[in-house]
Structure of Pyrroline-5-carboxylate reductase:
Amino acid sequence: MAKLDEKIGFIGGGNMAFAIGSGLINREFVKTSQVLVSGPNIENLGRWRDLGIATTDDNYEVLDKADIIFICVKPHILTPMAAQLRNLHSPTLKDKDKLFVSVLAGVKLKTLEEKFSFVEGLKMIRTMPNTPMQIGEGITVYSPGSYVKQQDLEKLHLMLNSLGIAQQVPETMIDAVSGVAGCGPAFVYTIIEALADGGVKQGVPRQMAQQFAAQMLLGAAKMVLLTGKHPAVLRDEVCSPGGATIVGVHELEKGQLR
């Protein structure tokens, strides 16, 4: 049974939108019948349709039909997209009930509220999620706009927290968090690949090396979260005097990993 009754819309059906939408469905937070996704090229939305989700090439259809609308276009598309919606929109009583959620990196609430000022009583929330939301291990921070009510925040928090961790923060902190949590998965994937390559170089089969590298990173992350110890303390516990680990740490330092 779905935990949310509202219709969820995505304007833009790219990777971040898919991570959120598919994550909500996988967690049975919403039914596929509650979701509508728009994109300029309908053929690029095939993975949504594979899940049984309705798609359209009409952004205004999402604006008109959805109750919670995720803005998931690229930042440079925001202005023409919002202008198109402005030209098509006729104010209705439903406007004040709609909740808009932006995932656009670097686009501030002030800009978002200006672009969507044609929606009376606009309720806009700026977020920065990450793609591991797709498997329920994501991180999202969010900041509310002018007309957002506490019940709106609670509803969004419930949605996003079902996909990992969600935390309200001052908007001034969102860009900094983007570097840690939003971009972070790409940094970590690079490290996993490098560790696996090292294993392969030394004779470990590729699949095994990749699995071990990923599991090691998962275990190390849980050690930080569950023990509460500083990463430097945990690192020191692995480093024996004159051992292979401290030699590797030294190489990482020489390579300016941090």
About this structure: Residues 8-171 form a domain with the Rossmann fold fold (CATH 3.40.50.720). Residues 35 and 149 are 23 Å apart (CA to CA). Strands lie at 8-11, 35-38, 54-56, 68-71, 99-102, 124-128, 138-144, 164-168. The mean pLDDT is 94.
